[in-house]
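Dear Dr. V.,

Thank you for agreeing to look over these. As mentioned in my earlier message, I'm a first-year student in the group and I'm still getting used to reading structure tokens, so any feedback on how I've presented them would be very welcome. I ran two proteins. I've put each sequence directly above its structure. The first is here:
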Amino acid sequence: MATTFTRMDASTREQWLTIGVEHVKNQGRVADRILWLLESLAELVDGFATDQLTHCLQTATRAERAGADKEFVVASLCHDIGKAISVPNHPAIAAAMLQPYVRDEVYQVILTHQDFQGRHYYAYFDKDPDAREQYRDEPWFALGERFADEWDQNSFDPDYDTLPLEHFEPLVREVFAQPHTF
């Protein structure tokens, strides 16, 4: 059922309750859209040895095999999902998409992961390879290092035993089923 207002300042409480019910009914489409965006990464190689979907799958596979919890496994899977839209600001896009569904430390790691990765290549672009140090005093710094150094930077291997997207789909659906915040 659709509401009839054409301006928010002319809406009623009852109309917003209707909209709220519709949002809850349609929450499942969030996971569908996330999976769709992930699948679209298979088209992006951008000079790497694997496409970006394979890279994300390898990162999530490594996180899962290392014992990461479900929020962090899903965040590892989605950390480069923003590349489907814009490579330069992909960390902010991915982090914003994850933020309502994961705890703050997971959000912060995804938001800043490019600066943590910079250790491995920023110098080639005349940028500070120690950019991660600006976050040294953050409580999630060690998790950011672990993500970047153990799971992300080494996940461009065409021969790695990578778990398929279907393996992660139930976790994606679980994590994106209900936002922590509105």
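The second protein is here, in the same arrangement:
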Amino acid sequence: MGVLALAALVLVSFFVEAVAGFGSMVIALTVGALFSPVDALLGLLVPVNLVLSVYLVARNRAHVDWRFLWRRVVPLMAVGVVIGTALTRVVNQGIAKPLFALFVMAVAASQLRQALGKASLTRPLHEGARVAGLLGAGVIHGIFATGGPLTVYVSARELADKHAFRATLSAVWVVMNALVMPRLVQDGAVTLHSLQTSALLLLPLGAGIVLGERVHAALDERKFRVAVAALLLVAGGVLLVGSLTAKAGAT
């Protein structure tokens, strides 16, 4: 995947996260995986995502729900990240891509149904569902550095204010990506060369932040979530077809 195409992908996907507090990695990986190996993309994009998340937390730290973050989210997701990191040693790309595509499509379809529904999601999940959701989010994050869809599903039930929602999710990504980075360095996905490319991607990231901050202030959140969920559903379908076609061609 060329640098210019990657820059365009960063601009669009990280603009989404600057608006809503989630979505950059799952969009970037879903689209980028059509053209490049997932591990290579992670090595380039996780450092950029870390910069964005640190910026959003620093700028909006007054809105972070620290109690929810440290008592309910981080402990469960951290355990999941450890499990997911271990699974990366046994799950190959040929299996990982279609599984990731199915995961994206399932969560996107659920979010689209909820966003189009009339009932608001104001009731927290039952404890068992919350634990399972956050553990699963951690596992996905350990493998793909993008446990966002499940984390969003749980957090949206407990963080009604859009400012608290975005700021707290950004803090989650800071912690989770800090846990993922050592594995990427050990696997050779993050190197001095990859960091040079990541540094170039800070330019489209900056543009995405500027645009995203403006849109966030005047956001019709329901319409935005419908658009993001629809985009993920289509992109996940394209990735699923592409990965299955490539797998069939290799056999």
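From my reading of the second output: The two ends are 25 Å apart (CA to CA). The chain has a mean pLDDT of 82. Does that match how you would interpret it?

Kind regards,
E.
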